[in-house]
Every structure is written in C-alpha cells, then in structure tokens.
C-alpha cells in the first residue's frame, strides 16, 4: 500500500491532531472489531476536554471548520482502507504456511529461509520472511542482496560515511552500504497477546523513517523504506490501533510503502523489479 496523495503532504500539526483525537476518542469500535471514524461532536468534545482551542474545530454556529473536514476525510479513509482492504489480506499461521509451501515448491529457492523464534510444535520457517526472500531472489537474478544484514545501514559520499542508521534492518538491496531499498518485517503468527515487543516494532520503524527522512532532506539522498507485516490475530484482533498508527506513519512519509499479508504476493514482485531498474539504469544527472 502506498500513501493516498490527498494526505501525503499534510503539515505535522495535522498529524498531531490525528494522534490526539485518536487517543482521546479511541481508534476502534471494539465490539465490532472495526476501525472507528470519530464524529464532529466527538472531536469537539476532545478539544474541550483537553482544554484546547475548539474554535479551530467548529465555528460559532457549531458547523465544522475546513481543518475538521480534512480530519474527517482522513479518518474515513483510514477506517475504510483498514476495514475493507487490509483486514482481508492478513493471514493466520496456517494460511501463511500454505502460501509459503506453495511458493517454495514453485521457486525452489537458494536464498536464506530463517526459522522463527518459537519452540516445540510452533517451531517452523519464518513464513513471511521466507516468502519475501523467495520473491526478491526470483526477481533479481544473480544480483547482490543482503537478506539479513548483520551491520548498520550506512550511506557514504566520496568514500566517507555521512549517515549510519541507529538500527540493523531486516533486509537491504543490494547492500546495507548505500542501499537502494531497505525493509523491515513484522510477523507474529504465534503470539497470543499484543505485547510491548510488537508495539516497539512500530516505533522502531518510525525511528528508521525519521532518519531516512533527515537523510533525504539534508543530503538529497533517497533510500526506499518498506514495512511488511502479517498475522491476523496479532495485528487485527489485538493490535488494530497500531495498524492505524502504521497508516498514519505511511502518510507522514516515514515509510514509502507498507505491505500487509497477501500484499507481499500481490505487489512485491513489481517493487523488486523497480529496485533492479534503479540499479541497472541509474538516472542521468544533468551537469
């Protein structure tokens, strides 16, 4: 999923209001397991309760202001895309295993297929990571790719490091040194609760996105940044509010694209082909 251009270039104050309202009003309708769209009255009451300037939300006749209409448009979009597009694409462990096995039989990969961190009956290949690695391998021929960087991502100029990201990412193409693209994978098929480790994964992606944004703004160097996640139970049943945060993060520009579950199968092949084109046919820069 790429960001909707209607919301891509909003000011940071817009996203501050999105977060504040979502926190106060709630992200979801729990009994229906759906993402919520707040009403004008709820937004107004949120500002009143927090002792904020309600005049930017409603006019004297109680009608919504332009910024309120923009907020409502975004909340409606966020709810629609999560309820109707993302939720059906999230897989459970059995579906992920079947998808993995089918792709493995088809592609006969040579790329790394890591195991998950579970024990006993739950010990198995890391299905989403394996699917991602197999798709990438099938599209890059014999080109270099680091499927599991054991080092920090570093950007250099004239042989000198100008930025080194704070965290090790889950993959880099073609290398963690001056990559075209980097990605993070959050698969949690066997978790039974939405714990702090899962929540931390969202904030880690946000940190990486902020560093990549700073690199682009100050050094004019762009690195494509992707987040790929799966597990219907973990993300939808337990952590739907964090899916909202991920959609917010996507539109704030901290990740170029998020692939949810089956979206990896649907979109990653074309994405990888774009990476290959960037490497093999770099743009000509005018003097």
Explain this structure.
With 287 residues, the protein is an alpha/beta fold. It folds into two domains: 12-89, no CATH class; 142-280, no CATH class. 47% of the residues lie in helices and 12% in strands. The protein has nine helices and eight strands. The chain has helices at 12-25, 40-49, 66-86, 93-107, 127-140, 196-219, 232-238, 240-252, 263-280, and strands spanning 28-29, 34-35, 154-157, 160-164, 171-173, 181-187, 224-230, 257-260. The protein has a four-stranded mixed sheet, with helices on both faces. Strands 1-2 form a two-stranded antiparallel ribbon. Strands 3-4 form a two-stranded antiparallel ribbon. Helix 6 (196-219) links the parallel strand 6 (181-187) and strand 7. Helix 4 (93-107) packs parallel to helix 5, helix 5 (127-140) packs parallel to helix 9 and helix 7 (232-238) packs across helix 8. The two termini are 35 Å apart. The model has no long low-confidence stretch (mean pLDDT 93).
Portion of residues within helices: 40-55%
Oligomer: single chain
Percentage of residues in DSSP E strands: 5-15%
Give me the number of helical elements.
Answer: 9
Spatial strand order of the main sheet? 5-6-7-8
The helix-strand sequence is HEEHHHHEEEEHEHHEH
Taking pLDDT < 50 over at least 5 consecutive residues as the criterion, the unreliable ranges are none
Tally of strands: 8
Average of pLDDT: 93
N-to-C CA distance: 35 Å
Largest sheet: 4 strands, mixed
Radius of gyration: 21 Å
